[in-house]
Amino acid sequence: MNFIPLLAILGLMTGLNATATAADLAAGEATAAGICAGCHMPDGNSVIPQFPNLAGQSAQYLSKQLNDYKNGARKDDTMTGMAFTLATDADIANVSAFFASKKHRPTTADASKVALGKAIYRGGNSTSNVPACMGCHSPNGSGNPAAKFPSLAGQHADYTIKQLKDFRDSARTNDSNNMMHNVANKMKVEEINAVAHYIAQMK
Predict the structure, then answer these.
(1) In angstroms, rounded to a whole number, what is the distance separating the alpha carbons of residues 70 and 201?
(2) CB burial of residue 196 (10 Å; 0-12, 13-18, 19+)
(3) N or C: which end of the chain has fewer CB within 10 A?
(4) Confidence of residue 107 (pLDDT cuts 50, 70, 90)
(5) Residue 144: strand pairing partners
């Protein structure tokens, strides 16, 4: 049996399958314009501090969050309804890939909080056993897509503060192995605020 043609055929089939399953950015853009833009803006750079920036977020993380809204792992009355308008896995993949393809912009930060925020983000707090944020979210805030750890750079401080407090208070529980709860639970309010403002000005 000649294995070369067989391998070639298998390789072609694999390539076709990859093409077929690749995200459709045009479809994602249409979905974003019709469903997401009212809160997150057409390019994913929200102008309302309570609504997160989605631009530049990893597609893996966005897909996880949308699925978590649909299956109840993450709870928000507005977002649960929005997520259910994305009927298929392809809808979720397409809109996630679209926002991932956009460039995020830094947001407003309180300069008086940035120094402490940088210290916690990069070095943690050894006294209270708060780990450095960059261990999971990278030194430049780009996150870890493979692990579904989000990009943080340029995120609104108000949104980040709320998420850290929700993790701390177990109002949000869709973190893997309670990782974020265990971190936020050790942080003082001023540390939460400072980290959020440091993140907001990251480029």
Answers:
(1) 31
(2) buried
(3) N
(4) very high
(5) 149
Q: Which CATH class is domain 24-33+54-103?
A: mainly alpha
Q: Is the fold of 24-33+54-103 the same as that of 111-201?
A: yes
| Contacting residues for 151 by C-beta, under 8 A, at least 6 apart | 56, 57, 58, 61, 104, 137, 141, 142, 143
Long-range contacts of 11-19 (CB under 8 A, 24+ apart): none
The per-residue pLDDT for 150 is 98
Q: What confidence tens digit (pLDDT) does each residue in 12-63 have? A: 434 333 333 589 999 999 999 999 999 999 999 999 999 999 999 999 999 9
Q: Report if pTM > 0.90.
A: no
Which amino acid is it at 54? L
Q: By percentage, how much of the chain surpasses pLDDT 70?
A: 90
Residues 6+ apart with CB under 8 A from 40: 32, 46, 51, 52, 53, 54, 99
Which one-letter DSSP state was computed for residue 177?
A: G
- The domain limits of the chain are 24-33+54-103, 111-201
Tokens of 168: 């701390």
**Measured distance CA(101)–CA(99) in Å, rounded:** 5
Distance, in Å, from the CA atom of 45 to the CA atom of 65, rounded to the nearest integer, reads 17
- Condensed to tens digits (0 to 9), the pLDDT of residues 123-158 reads 999 999 999 999 999 999 999 999 999 999 999 999
d(CA 52, CA 156): 6
Using the 8-state DSSP alphabet, how is residue 32 labeled? I
